[in-house]
Design a protein that fits this description.
Strand order of the largest sheet: 3-10-9-8-7-6-5-4
Number of helices: 13
Order of helices and strands: HEEEHHHEHEHEHHEHEHHEHEH
Strand content: 5-15%
Helix content: 40-55%
Mean pLDDT: 84
Structural class: alpha/beta
Number of strands: 10
């Protein structure tokens, strides 16, 4: 009897580590923090490159919250170069394989790569040909998009064709060619012109309307003294994204952090985005991981809602 009890005890003890490991994997997968669960994410093709449907953005790294000067300062204080590298390594761990930024962060990207990082780089620039030369010399940058603020300004001034001049320079420099915009009408206009480009970066909120434009939409109601994010905007941009065959990279899907206050709002934004965009579209998310594992959380939501059919 004693020998039988001893064998049973040893059998249960041997099974315990495996059971604990299995439980850990389940809990980690539910929280989005498992390296096993995050080893890969749904992918799209951008030119010849396979890109995760979740891309790391740059605004929080740069202290650009679109919320307040105080949040900007907090982000700048937190995101030292070492912390940015740490966040990028976490992004790579959960399956995010692309960083969208600009030349100002390119040296840090090269350091990330020199230290073993394996992410791609997408740049966003404003018509400076010297930038293209620097990006080409350093390696790792696969695409350059014309800066959205400049794109929209030129569109409103009736000078959109000036954007195409820079797109030709991007092509000649060997990069994938992109256009960034906050306006569905810009996507529609470029599509009608048949320009040579590979992708769009599409802000789902038209956040830079003038006071006159807002009053035309909303009537003469009191307006807040900051950027206005209208919940009716995302469907407008999603429609424009679906009407082009080119890949679109949706950004500001959380309304520049305004929808980050509650878990259900974050989940709804991810769900509605990936239900509304094409299977060959992706999302760019600004990450501020000071208080939670946002790379892991975002990756878990994309695995849940972003599996392309």
């Amino acid at each position: 009897m004693e020998s039988s009890n001893r064998r049973e005890f040893l059998h249960q003890a041997a099974a315990l580590p495996a059971a604990l490991a299995a439980a850990h994997r389940v809990l980690a997968a539910e929280s989005g923090s498992s390296s096993e669960a995050g080893a890969s994410l749904p992918q799209i093709m951008l030119g010849k490159y396979s890109i995760s449907r979740l891309i790391c953005g740059a605004n929080p790294f740069n202290g650009g919250s679109h919320l307040s000067v105080f949040v900007n300062q907090e982000m700048k204080a937190y995101y030292t170069p070492e912390q940015i590298l740490k966040t990028l390594r976490r992004c790579q761990q959960v399956g995010i394989n692309c960083w969208q930024a600009s030349l100002s962060r390119y040296d840090l990207f090269r350091r990330f790569r020199d230290e073993g990082g394996q992410m791609h780089f997408l740049s966003i620039e404003a018509r400076d040909p010297g930038v293209l030369k620097k990006l080409a010399e350093g390696g790792g940058c696969i695409g350059v998009a014309h800066h959205g603020e400049v794109t929209d300004k030129l569109f409103k001034e009736g000078k959109l064709d000036e954007v195409n001049d820079y797109l030709k320079r991007i092509r000649d420099s060997g990069f994938l060619v992109g256009v960034s915009t906050h306006m569905p009408n810009v996507v529609d206009a470029i599509e009608s012109k048949g320009w040579d480009l590979d992708y769009y970066m599409t802000c789902v909120y038209e956040r830079h309307r003038s006071e006159e434009e807002l009053k035309k939409l909303l009537g003469h109601v009191p307006l807040p003294p900051r950027e206005v994010y209208l919940m009716e905007d995302p469907p407008r941009m999603f429609k424009a994204m679906r009407q082009t065959k080119r890949p679109c990279l949706a950004f500001k899907i959380l309304a520049a952090g305004r929808l980050s206050e509650r878990k259900d709002l974050v989940e709804r934004a991810f769900r509605e985005t990936f239900q509304s965009i094409k299977p060959n579209d992706a999302a760019i998310i600004g990450i501020y991981d000071r208080y939670s594992d946002q790379p892991g959380e975002g990756a878990a939501l994309v695995r849940r809602f972003g599996s392309a059919s």
